Glyoxylase, beta-lactamase superfamily II (Lentzea jiangxiensis), 258 residues
Amino acid sequence: MKVHHLNCATFRPPLVAGGLVAHCLLVETDQGLVLVDTGFGMNEMTNPKATIDPLSRKLLKPVLDINETAISQVERRGYTADDVRHVLLTHLDLDHAGGLRDFPKATVHVLDSELEAASDPRNVKERARYPKAQREGVTFRTYEAEGEDWFGFRAVRDVAGLPDDILLVPLVGHTRGHTGIAVKGDDGWMLHAGDAYFYRGEVETPPSTTFPLKLTARQTETIREQRLSNVERLRELKAGGEVEVFCAHDPVELARLA
Ligand SMILES: [Zn+2]
């Protein structure tokens, strides 16, 4: 399968040198186009105040460029919105689910615990991170966070309508139903780890971090112990050398793969 690495939103948070990206994947399969995460879509780029809360606008400082939306990038490749049949989401945070409404024919695959968190938020933090408008009219298909072994992780192999080389690899912690998405491309397996970590050094050996991104990870986490143990497991997976591991927001990882 041919896999394209896209940036579907750019952020300039005040303390983060080099900024952040929204690393998404566009996969060409026999079942049509598949997107992994959607960054910000047309709605966020043209009318940010409707879905992005004031605090997120202030902290993330998004660069609002419609050319970065997944739909613009799909169309520039000669496809239409309707060619995108499936979207897999690492989670439903507003900077990952923004483009859903741009793909009305797509089935959106998420963990059941994530859709539940978004539909029934437990606190102010969850209410802000999952703007309801982003999910209006969207067709979801949900999965339990369990499955068969995949490089020592439990993975959901039977994602409805998709080949078995696209898997959900639950990495709960950042949110209640956060998951990685594994894809076997022409060069082997890769794992989009979403917001399981924010800085590439976190999964390198020996690990390193930066203060602003360590703080970001803590401020946005839901279950700390699970988040930290997942970072350890991802570091081991990366060290094993068989899987290309990357997160959603690191611009250096994206530049290496794009
Ligand atoms: Zn994010």
User: Anything to note?
Assistant: The pocket of zinc ion is lined by residues 93, 95-96, 195, 248-249 (CB under 6 Å).
